[in-house]
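Go through this chain for my students:
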Amino acid sequence: MSAQPDTQRSRDSEKQAAARAAVQLVESGNIVGLGSGSTATFAIQFLADRVRTGLKIVGIPTSQATKQLAEQLGIPLTTLDENPVIDIDIDGADEIDPRLNLIKGGGGAMLREKVIASASKRFVVVAESTKLVAHLGRFPLPVEVISFAEALVQRRIEALGAQVTLRKHKDGSIYVTDEGHHILDCNFGQIADPAALNAKLHEIPGVVEHGLFIGLAETAFVGKDGSVVQVKR
């Protein structure tokens, strides 16, 4: 029998533990950034539980999928136009290094996620233990691009040393973000200097945003071995 179901249950347990711990930071009256992805989904579910028992918050979702989930669970929503300053943002990550630099965007929502994180007083990351890495780069770095410049951007990123793949769905159709852009998944290998790569990518015309989150996260709650490890920057 495959060990995969047990592994998945263990990972889900870690995700739930991390999400449950992070949600305790939310207070009545908060404007809350609602992240995207599997671990953030647990956080949203736990927030909804607290809302049903009296927590007074409004959320700002980082994706259409998160918006639909929050509405289904009864979490009141608002927008950045109405509330440009967010008290706390809770979101997941694909990789977390010891300095709390992140790779995000495996789910394709890193543009809105970065906007929300940058507008937040506190950006808190929730994750399972496998997301902790010594160096970023095992997970391919997502880069969101306008389709008009896609080929040009790909060549310039390849010139930086990456192997680049256009993200597609399983049926072969091109993945399109909530903002109508494409994503290039870029395998750089170990990223020795995330801040330098961040600057180089932003210099390429046609790059909308990328999944390096540098200096944004305050704290990470990571489920590990039946407990929660708190990592601070």
Remarks:
- Residues 4-23 form the longest helix (20 residues).
- The chain is about 30% helix and 25% strand.
